[in-house]
Amino acid sequence: xxxxxxxxxxxxxxxxxxxxxxxxxxxxxxxxxxxxxxxxxxxxxxxxxxxxxxxxxxxxxxxxxxxxxxxxxxxxxxxxxxxxxxxxxxxxxxxxxxxxxxxxxxxxxxxxxxxxxxxxxxxxxxxxxxxxxxxxxxxxxxxxxxxxxxxxxxxxxxxxxxxxxxxxxxxxxxxxxxxxxxxxxxxxxxxxxxxxxxxxxxxxxxxxxxxxxxxxxxxxxxxxxxxxxxxxxxxxxxxxxxxxxxxxxxxxxxxxxxxxxxxxxxxxxxxxxxxxxxxxxxxxxxxxxxxxxxxxxxxxxxxxxxxxxxxxxxxxxxxxxxxxxxxxxx
Length: 330
Ligand SMILES: NC(=O)c1ccc[n+]([C@@H]2O[C@H](COP(=O)([O-])OP(=O)(O)OC[C@H]3O[C@@H](n4cnc5c(N)ncnc54)[C@H](O)[C@@H]3O)[C@@H](O)[C@H]2O)c1
Ligand SMILES: O=c1ccn([C@@H]2O[C@H](COP(=O)(O)OP(=O)(O)O[C@H]3O[C@H](CO)[C@H](O)[C@H](O)[C@H]3O)[C@@H](O)[C@H]2O)c(=O)[nH]1
Hints:
The chain is α/β, with parallel strands linked by helices. It has helices spanning about 10-20, 55-65, 80-85, 85-105, 140-160, 190-200, 225-240, 260-270, 295-300, 310-325; strands at about 1-5, 25-30, 45-50, 65-70, 110-115, 160-170, 170, 205-210, 220, 225, 245-250, 255-260, 275-280, 290.
């Protein structure tokens, strides 16, 4: 049996590929390299370079490689970009996800894991949010993912098809073994940006809004280590393979940190100061969003092992340092 990982050259997908290989699975990646990197794909994985919107390519890859499960990461990930280019986000995240789902159904693959997001909730406040909370995405990005969740539910009702839609909170950090990390060019994610600033790759970090109704005025997020996140996917894969029902599950730790707390953690762990300037709010940002992870723990048996902001930051800094030594230009 082989697992198809779409977006396996990207940040989270490349960690998933290593997690699957570590468990003795065979893996095939489809990636367009739009934001991913050839070097990020573990050498033991088969790789097909193409667009997941090409349904025939996805189907023929599934059939040629004997795929029994699809883990679908390929997509566009930057919330403010989705505000500026909603149709681009609906195309890449919604329309092309439809192609991947259709190819899976046509090829008889009945196990599907999808990268959903906390952005489907909109702003949840500082209290942990459950999966049955009202869905009110604050951005086209969140809506593009919510529509895919809806397609999955309808497909599962009509076909021999079960899925796990995992709603990631804020993914950060890097493989503790140093095999992969976040290499995204022009990154916008807070911990990545702060790590770049700490290593002198950016002149300054801008805080996007300090007038929110939070303790220090900056947004609250639930930062999850990427290794814990890919563990949840592996747990979901085993759940589906043993006949478990489709589910939607949060992936986060249940507590939030403000933008300023994250900046302090990066300063503390790196031992380096860097300039921080206050800027205006960023379009599409939710004020606060924190996961209630009880369902993933109860149904999937997920046990996070790296719930430690300083540890997350430390692994992100180590990967950033690795990129510097490779002369990788961000
Ligand atoms: N990073 C986060 O905090 C976060 C949070 C919630 C959800 N997600 C979701 O997780 C998934 C992976 O995110 P990431 O942070 O690893 O981003 P990423 O940009 O590093 O990875 C996305 C990968 O998909 C590929 N890709 C994009 N469009 C494609 C297409 N049409 N055909 C083939 N390949 C394509 C890119 O080349 C890249 O390798 C995304 O679906 C994203 O929405 C990420
Ligand atoms: O230079 C920066 C970068 C970020 N931020 C702030 O830091 C917080 C986190 O921002 P990120 O860009 O790191 O992450 P988002 O919360 O916007 O989005 C991420 O998490 C979401 C789920 O919560 C989505 O799934 C999405 O794919 C993923 O990019 C936000 O308040 C943002 O305004 C800054 O102040 N300065």
